[in-house]
Amino acid sequence: MLRIIIINALMFALPFLIYAAYFYFVRSGKDENDMWSEAPILWLLGAGAALVLIALVSLVSFTGSEPGGTYFPSRLEDGVIKPGRIE
Q1: What's the domain range around 57?
Q2: Based on the structure, what is the number of domains in the chain?
Q3: Lower CB count within 10 Å: N or C terminus of the chain?
């Protein structure tokens, strides 16, 4: 679950990070306090939301197991926790 949260947070932050890098390297002559006051915030929010949606669809489509499998929960065998699985 933490992996999914980290991926989504990075996907949402990616447009903002790209904009900040662009501003830092290309427009370094301007006052850096004006960086976010003239930023296209709505476009960055929309791009971040679109990337999160693409990441979620990709994770759902390409991870997991076959539908209809039987779930066997994790169990303790000889003092070792065996992870759950789907067969």
Answers
A1: 2-86
A2: 1
A3: N
